[in-house]
């Protein structure tokens, strides 16, 4: 682990295994940090919080720029670690890692441009606001995009003057540890960035409940998010919760069907469906539903599921045996609840090792079915047919989640009308680009609160201080006559 600029083991010397999902074999042992380790990391981050806050923003940006260059220089190793740990196939892991500098550089540019405002007030007075960092921020990260999800929150946090303690997911700690090596090489002051590895209910809970943690960014399931929110509320930490989803992909009769099919596959098969914004509910207009499904089936026949290190692979394994069993259970539930149209099990040509699942589509799914309402987090889509726009909107908004949505149509008026009525943090029209460093990302309802990315993320990593100044040479109001 990386605490206070030092590499260390967990206090008690305990470790746990990390597994390659391509083979099911143990590839490394990771320190099992607990509350004492978390306390060392938070105390180290707290000890330097003031110095880091008052380090010139341009100097903070220069360190982030060096870090970004080091990420580029070490991209191949970082990509291999993501592939072997979280199951991204290698070429996808390379694409992901090559995008990480965009996230870092967005905040390199932003570090010296985040300002408060001046406010007009009555009388000979002046008011202004300054945006200040929160102090120590905790970053609890899931396993699906370990590096990206960590960087999208620590980049603004560091740029805006916060110190960081990261708790990677237990299944995927390797890239965070490699990243900490690069932070060290970039010469960040000791204690500004720390990584404590460990299990969620131990290291994660200790971090969320540490009283010196002023801000918590939690990305993960809604269930754990609720626990983290309770722990953080005990010491009134600022919360940023990026939680689960059950996002709709809507196809209107006038959509470019081949593009919509391509977008749908990307939406529920990308990273084997283990994406928070996965388009796992296919809401197809009745008139095009059969044709859409015929084309989807034909296109999915070409999808190569297999070893992430095979150059031909387009969909790797799911992250763990636990996740594999969970998804297979949902597929069995789907078979009872609706009509299995495509896939439905383990691909035939992958052997017996590794956690591989076929792209799976269920048709004629009832909107209340479990596979239509619960987040499966695997390559499984539920088709629901609709006919009237009002029914479509009710279907979309009946979900307890509100993370993301996609609309396929050539009619911009229809698209914008539907977009306005959808209760979700994001709507994309005729594409499936979920995340960019410059656009805000986050959810409504059970999908979370707060925003990552884009200028909106400033509010997640700063607090507002109001400074008021009396400009008169002497006080002219009698205290007893003052309004407050
Ligand atoms: P998870 O909730 O199981 O774990 C997330 C993190 O929380 C891990 O680091 C884990 O160790 C930690 N954790 C677990 N129990 C904890 C506790 N009691 N206290 C503190 N920390 C604890 O989620 P996961 O299975 O790793 O990730 C999948 C989920 O993440 C899905 O629901 C997905 O939609 C969501 N996700 C959301 C976004 C987003 O931006 N909204 C992005 C990626 C993933």
Spatial separation of the terminal alpha carbons: 52 Å
What Rg, in angstroms, do the CA atoms define?
24 Å
Shape: globular
Main beta-sheet annotation: 7 strands, mixed
CATH-wise, what's the superfamily of the largest domain?
Aldehyde Dehydrogenase, Chain A, domain 1
With strands numbered from the N-terminus, the spatial order across the biggest sheet is 14-15-16-13-12-18-19
User: Unreliable segments (pLDDT under 50, ≥5 consecutive)?
Assistant: none
Structural class by helix and strand composition: alpha/beta
The CATH topology of the largest domain corresponds to: Aldehyde Dehydrogenase, Chain A, domain 1
How many helical stretches?
15
CATH class of the largest domain: Alpha Beta
Mean pLDDT rating:
96
Beta-strand segment tally:
22
Subunit organisation of the chains: single chain
Strand content: 15-25%
């Amino acid at each position: 682990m990386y605490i206070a600029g030092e590499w260390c083991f967990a206090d008690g010397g305990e470790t746990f295994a990390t597994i390659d999902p391509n083979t099911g074999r143990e590839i490394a042992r990771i320190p099992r940090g607990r509350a004492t380790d978390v306390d060392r990391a938070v105390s180290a981050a707290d000890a330097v919080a003031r110095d880091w806050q008052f380090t010139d923003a341009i100097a903070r940006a220069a360190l982030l720029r060096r870090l970004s260059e080091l990420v580029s220089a070490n991209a191949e190793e970082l990509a291999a670690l993501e592939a072997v740990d979280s199951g991204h196939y290698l070429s996808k892991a390379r694409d992901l890692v090559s995008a990480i500098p965009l996230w870092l550089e967005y905040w390199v540019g932003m570090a010296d441009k985040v300002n408060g405002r001046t406010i007009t007030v009555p009388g000979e007075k002046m008011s202004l606001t300054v945006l200040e960092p929160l102090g120590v921020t905790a970053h609890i990260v899931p396993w699906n995009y370990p590096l990206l999800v960590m960087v999208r929150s620590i980049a603004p946090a560091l740029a805006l003057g916060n110190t960081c303690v990261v708790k990677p997911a237990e299944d995927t700690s390797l890239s965070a540890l490699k990243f900490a090596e690069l932070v060290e090489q970039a010469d960040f002051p000791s204690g500004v960035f720390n990584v404590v590895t460990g299990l969620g209910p131990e290291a994660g809970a200790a971090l969320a409940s540490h009283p010196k943690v002023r801000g918590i960014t939690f990305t993960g399931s809604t269930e754990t998010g609720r626990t983290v929110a309770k722990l953080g509320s005990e010491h009134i930490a600022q919360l940023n919760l990026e939680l689960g989803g059950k996002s709709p992909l809507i196809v209107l009769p006038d959509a470019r069907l081949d593009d919509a099919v391509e977008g749908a596959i990307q939406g529920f098969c990308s990273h084997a469906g283990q994406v928070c914004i996965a388009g796992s509910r296919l809401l197809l207009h009745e008139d095009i539903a059969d044709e859409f499904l015929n084309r989807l089936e034909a296109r999915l026949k070409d999808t190569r599921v297999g070893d992430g290190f095979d150059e031909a692979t387009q969909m790797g394994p799911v992250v763990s045996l636990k996740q594999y069993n969970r998804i297979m259970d949902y597929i069995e539930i789907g078979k009872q609840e609706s009509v299995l149209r495509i896939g439905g099990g383990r691909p035939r040509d992958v052997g017996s090792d590794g956690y591989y699942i076929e792209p799976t589509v269920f048709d004629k799914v009832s909107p209340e079915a479990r596979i239509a309402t619960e987040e499966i987090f695997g390559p499984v889509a539920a088709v629901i047919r609709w006919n009237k726009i009002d029914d479509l909107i009710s279907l979309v908004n009946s979900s307890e989640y509100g993370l993301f949505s996609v609309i396929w149509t050539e009619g911009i008026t229809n698209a914008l009308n539907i977009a306005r009525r959808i209760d979700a943090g994001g709507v994309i029209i005729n594409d499936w680009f979920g995340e960019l460093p410059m656009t805000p990302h986050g959810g409504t309802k059970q999908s979370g609160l707060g925003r990552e990315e884009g200028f909106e993320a400033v509010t997640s990593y700063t607090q507002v201080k109001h400074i008021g100044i009396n400009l008169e040479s002497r006080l002219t109001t009698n205290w007893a006559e003052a309004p407050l």
